Amino acid sequence: MAVLPAVDCIFCQLIGEGTAHWVAREAEACAFTPLNPLAPGHTLVVPTSHYAGVFDTPPEVLAKSMALVQRVAAAMRTTLGATGVNILSASGPGSEQSVPHLHFHVVPRWEDDGISTWPTGVSSHHPTADPRTQLADALR
């Protein structure tokens, strides 16, 4: 089921207007370069339909988006000589999500490239129960 674009969503506007710097455009997902790339070739992959985040995206749309993420990452390795990639995504208000449209940053990486995309701190949240047990129980 297609979801209508969100009027106030910058990614929906870019997709609708066709004004992004496109890397790939497919029926279910597209890829374009961000305004402020972290590295040469940094690419955003987004579903073409509006979904706020991973929690409300149907599995089949998520799968199509991730398939494009994988193809973009492979192209970064073969054409840019990247020796690795970071795939970054945030969903929900507690995650520092900047645009409420599911998106994946695919950042090409090279040895000693001078950036770090890995968190350097540890969460200060203290759960009242064992998270592993809670998650395992929820997934049974």
UniProtKB/TrEMBL annotation:
HIT domain span: 10-116
SUPFAM superfamilies reported in the protein's UniProt record: HIT-like
Location of region: Disordered: 118-140
UniProt motif (Histidine triad motif) ranges: 101-105
Pfam families: HIT (PF01230)
Membrane spanning stretches: none
Protein name: HIT domain-containing protein
